[in-house]
């Protein structure tokens, strides 16, 4: 299917807050009736647990740009919420790097 | 590579390697790029390290390299698809690391903006038989201001060279780490990533003291 069919011809999400590794969580108290098949599939995937934007695109086999449009709509309708990849205000990069390093060394 | 993963595990929850989903306690997602020229081993490297079966995302672009963002206007234009393979490593209860294997061509510049945004750094995979092919991707990283380390991926039968020769051939800065790795091997690939992150740490320390 051409991507613009899925998104009603739109190429930009309603919000510009999605990075490839923005974490997405679904709210299980929102009705799924009335959602397009793609949005319903996205919700069914996300209701299982948290995933990044890139993982959602990969599982649904949709381009990232199309996935972002669908995610924007579903955040607007209260079906999903997001968590910024790195809450930079609280976590300076030095701390992230140390945690990444510790985690990698623990895998050796 | 099989990208039809969604159908492989039904309701997404029953992946044989463990959870498809993130731990509930994860709060932070970090991103590192694994870049290099065609067939240098990016997908293999990501696959060795990932706890999930690597996933693939695709973007549609015009042949000229623009991300197709005016979808109504692309009828009749030639488009091409760019694939990125990526994987995931849960490093602690609260932290997850994503590795993105990305093509290193200049013409995918919009894709690069997306990928480099928020990335900690990049690991450049290189092949001693085709060192000159690494220049384009190294140039792109410098253009985007993303720090990197170079890992020479060991291919069976490829010539080995002294480090100094490789450094010179790649025109590396003295501080840029150069390591060798076997992208098929999890431990070896982990060590290459560690070299990159140690380097990123020294850079951060320097910046904080300026």
Describe the structure.
- The complex is a heterodimer of chains A (108) and B (210).
- Chain A is mainly α and 108 residues long.
- Chain A has a single domain (3-105), classed as Arc Repressor Mutant, subunit A.
- Helices cover 44% and strands 9% of the residues of chain A.
- Chain A is built from 5 helices and 3 strands.
- Chain A has helices spanning 3-6, 37-46, 53-60, 64-76, 93-105, and strands spanning 23-26, 51-52, 80-83.
- In chain A, strands 2-1-3 form a 3-stranded antiparallel β-sheet.
- The model of chain A has no long low-confidence stretch (mean pLDDT 88).
- Chain B has a single domain (6-209), classed as Rossmann fold.
- Chain B is 27% helix and 26% strand.
- A 7-stranded mixed β-sheet of chain B has the order 2-3-4-1-5-6-7, with helices on both faces.
- The longest helix of chain B is centred in the last third of the chain and has 24 residues, at 186-209.
- In chain B, 40% of the residues are buried.
- Chain B: This is ATP/GTP-binding protein.
- Chain B: Pfam families: ATP_bind_1 (PF03029).
- Chain B: Keywords: GTP-binding, Hydrolase, Nucleotide-binding.
- Chain B: InterPro entries: Gliding_Motility_GTPase, Gpn, P-loop_NTPase.
What structural keywords apply?
heterodimer; A: 108 residues; mainly alpha; Arc Repressor Mutant, subunit A; three-stranded antiparallel β-sheet; 5 helices; 9% strand; elongated; B: 210 residues; alpha/beta; Rossmann fold; seven-stranded mixed β-sheet; 26% strand; globular; disordered N terminus; GTP binding (chain B); nucleotide-binding (chain B); hydrolase (chain B); hydrolase activity (chain B); P-loop_NTPase (chain B)
């Amino acid at each position: 299917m051409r991507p613009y069919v899925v998104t009603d011809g739109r190429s930009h999400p309603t919000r510009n807050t999605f990075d490839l590794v923005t974490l997405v969580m679904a709210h299980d108290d929102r009705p799924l009736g009335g959602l397009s098949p793609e949005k319903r599939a996205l919700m069914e995937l996300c209701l299982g647990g948290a995933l990044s934007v890139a993982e959602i695109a990969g599982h649904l086999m949709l381009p990232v740009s199309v996935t972002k449009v669908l995610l924007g709509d579903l955040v607007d309708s209260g079906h999903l919420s997001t968590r910024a990849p790195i809450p930079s205000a609280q976590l300076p990069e030095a701390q992230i790097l140390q945690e990444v390093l510790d985690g990698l060394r623990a895998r050796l | 590579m099989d990208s039809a993963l969604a159908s492989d595990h039904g309701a997404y929850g029953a992946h044989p390697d463990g959870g498809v989903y993130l731990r509930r306690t994860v709060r932070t997602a970090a991103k590192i790029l694994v870049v290099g020229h065609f067939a240098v081993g990016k997908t293999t490297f990501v696959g060795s390290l990932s706890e999930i079966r690597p996933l693939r995302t695709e973007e549609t672009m015009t042949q000229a390299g623009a991300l197709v963002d005016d979808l109504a206007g692309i009828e009749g234009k030639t488009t091409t698809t760019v694939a990125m393979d990526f994987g995931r490593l849960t490093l602690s209860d609260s932290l997850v690391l994503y590795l993105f294997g990305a093509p290193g061509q200049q013409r995918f510049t919009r894709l690069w903006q997306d990928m480099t945004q928020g990335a900690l750094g990049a690991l450049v995979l290189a092949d001693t038989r085709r060192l000159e092919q690494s220049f384009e991707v190294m140039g792109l990283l410098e253009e985007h201001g993303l720090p990197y380390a170079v890992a020479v991926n060991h291919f069976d039968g490829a010539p080995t060279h002294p480090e100094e020769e490789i450094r010179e051939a790649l025109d590396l800065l003295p501080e840029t780490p150069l390591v060798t790795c076997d992208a098929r091997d999890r431990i070896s690939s982990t060590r290459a990533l560690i070299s990159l992150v140690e380097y990123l740490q020294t850079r951060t320390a320097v910046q904080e003291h300026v």
